[in-house]
Amino acid sequence: MDGSESLTESTGTLALANRSVEFAWLSLPPDHRGLLEEVGAARRQVVAEPLGLLADRMLRSAGKQGPTPSKQASLDRALGAWIPELGTVLIHAAHPTLTALDSVTYEAFIARIAWHEWGHALSLARCSREDIAAGGRLLEQAPEGIRKIIRDAGYGSKDYTHEIIAEAYALMMARLVQGHKDKPIWLHNEIYNLLTRVTGWGN
Questions:
Q1: N or C end of the chain: which has fewer CB within 10 A?
Q2: Domain of 107?
Q3: Are residues 8 and 82 in the same domain?
């Protein structure tokens, strides 16, 4: 596919997204894949529909309670989501945010979504109560771009730590595939140490 081709003109969006997610998975350090398998977060599904409606159907089909109306609405706006009850990461490959991207940018964006959700899954499974309680302080220490994403999304304070880890993990993975394994100067030591403990980064 020509890198300048709009995804709205392509019939292979789902196939491209699936390849990008598999690349993202295989790019993870083996220890990280092992941790994700251990916490039941290795399954992933790429879809072309809003995630709230899909999660509701999947949860009810599995005999579980569906999301609340507000949670479903939030999921419908999401690019990706980790659904712990299903042990599955969902990625909305046809989200309106993505449809105008050229294929090269699209692939990178899809990989970043996957890394974010895997970081989120590890954070939910492995963060302590103290880690979550430190969310406000960690947010002030986070890079400006991460702070803006979290504040603009309207997350509550109990979500800060999870979102910081997810965003930092995605950024670190993007650096890793480019050959950068060192700690970046823009990441505060406390956040880096938390990322290391929760995700196994640097091990």
A1: C
A2: 1-115
A3: yes
- The single residue listed with the structure tokens 């480019």 is 178
100 plus 137 within the same structural domain: no
Q: Do 111 and 148 sit in the same domain of this protein?
A: no
- Whether residues 1 and 101 fall in one domain: yes
| Domain count for the chain | 2
The separation between the first and the last C-alpha atoms of the chain, rounded to the nearest angstrom, is: 37
- Give domain status of residue 121, yes or no: no
How far is residue 4's CA from residue 7's CA, in Å, rounded to a whole number?
Answer: 9
Q: Give the whole-angstrom CA distance, residue 115 versus residue 175.
A: 12
Q: Where are the alpha helices (DSSP H) in the chain?
A: 13-27, 30-38, 51-61, 69-77, 103-126, 129-133, 135-141, 144-153, 160-177, 189-199
96 DSSP 8-state letter: T
The DSSP call for residue 81 is E
Closest CA to 160 of 188, 182, 186, 191: 191
HSE, CB side, 13 Å, CA atoms: give it for residue 164. 31
